[in-house]
Amino acid sequence: MESGDVSAASAWLAPAKLNLMLRVVGRRADGYHELQTVFQFIDRCDRLWFDVCDDGRIRRLTAVEGVEESQDLTVRAARALQQVTGCRLGAAIRCEKNLPMGGGLGGGSSDAATTLVALNHLWGTGLDEDALSAIALPLGADVPVFVRGRAAWAEGVGERLDPVDLPEPWYLVLVPDCAVSTKAVFSHPELTRDSKLITLADFLSGDVVNDCLSVVRKDYPDVAAALEYLSPWHGRLTGTGACVFAVFDDEADAQGALAGLPGGMRGFVTKGQNRSALLRQLDVG
Questions:
Q1: Last residue of a domain, one of 164, 181, 200
Q2: Rounded to whole angstroms, how far apart are CA atoms 8 and 87?
Q3: Catalytic residue among 5, 17, 46, 207
Q4: Is it the case that residue 248 has pLDDT exceeding 50?
Q5: Are 79 and 151 members of one domain?
Q6: Which one of the listed residues 46, 72, 111, 142 is annotated catalytic?
Q7: With 0-12 CB in 10 A as exposed, 13-18 as middle and 19+ as buried, what is 226?
Q8: pTM value?
């Protein structure tokens, strides 16, 4: 995978995503759910630094509350790249977290993808996008979309990706004070699992249902409150949550809605991107 001029000392960007819709259309024998969703990136990012070393060790320099080093997706991604390529180099990984855990913005998956892309460059392992995506998939169903870095229509468990060219509006994203467990949502007895298949044309015509919304809104009062605030702008849930968002054509309108947030609610205004900040950083594609 070719890359632009990103030095070892540079911060590598790990962008957030929004799921602009999410349909659960079936459940496989292995327990995974068949989905339809649309991914678009936003310009909010984690930042990662990688210090390459010769001893082959993978070390995490930034602790993540509740996540053991061996289970950290950046560590797992680095070790997976070592295993596939036979690379004998190691790395110390530092991460500046700007994306909330359990927020549905894909922070952990994006960190893993950026680790694969960055170390492929810094270690000189020379894998192309398809090969990196194959390593990415076992780390999480949405890790490949971050490796590829293009807005996409996704099916399967989220791994079958077709790039799409979407409007790039402004979003107001609210960050409720809770973390939503994806596993808990997908195992919830009330989750709809038999939505009918739709087409990209249906989505573009306004079919933006998220089948996880009713379950998350019922079980997480902070999410319900955020959705209530966004109701004049038809607020949506991203992924399994907890973050919710509304779409604006104009940045000033989004900032106005942000300024009206009641006390205790947090949010930010961000721009939709069909090419992720990481892809822009690499200057490819």
A1: 164
A2: 17
A3: 17
A4: yes
A5: yes
A6: 142
A7: buried
A8: 0.94
Structure confidence at residue 28 (pLDDT): 85
Structure-block tokens of residue 131:
């090969």
Does residue 2 fall inside a structural domain? no
Q: Which residues contact 59 (CB under 8 A, 6 or more apart)?
A: 69, 90, 91, 92, 93
What does the alpha-carbon distance between residue 183 and residue 181 come to, in Å, rounded to a whole number?
5
User: Looking at the predicted structure, is the pLDDT value of residue 236 above 80?
Assistant: yes
| Token pair for 117 | 């892309």
Do the Cβ atoms of 21 and 147 come closer than 8 Å?
no
Q: Is 279 contained in some domain?
A: no
Residues 6 or more apart in contact with residue 175 via CB below 8 angstroms: 100, 103, 242, 243, 266, 267, 268
Could you write out the DSSP letters of every residue in 209-223?
Answer: -BTTHHHHHHH-HHH
Class of residue 134 by CB neighbours under 10 A (exposed 0-12, middle 13-18, buried 19+): middle
Give CA–CA dist 139/83, Å, rounded: 14
Positive or negative torsion for Cα 267, 269, 275, 278: negative
* Cα–Cα distance for residue pair 63/69, rounded to 1 Å: 8
The CA-atom distances, in angstroms, between 47 and each of 108, 142, 220 are 12, 19, 29
Helix (H, G, I), strand (E, B) or coil at 172: strand
Please give the residue range of the domain that contains residue 256. Answer: 170-273
110 part of a folded domain? yes
The answer to whether residue 35 sits within a structural domain is yes
Q: What is the mean pLDDT of residues 122-128?
A: 98
- Is residue 183 among the annotated active site residues? no
Chain mean pLDDT for the chain: 94
Active site residue 142: yes
Q: Are residues 93 and 35 in the same domain?
A: yes
* Tokens found for residue 179: 């973390």
**Pick from 4-8, 71-75, 214-218: least confident:** 4-8
Tokens 């995503």 locate to: 17
Of 133, 164, 195, which residue constitutes the final position of a domain? 164
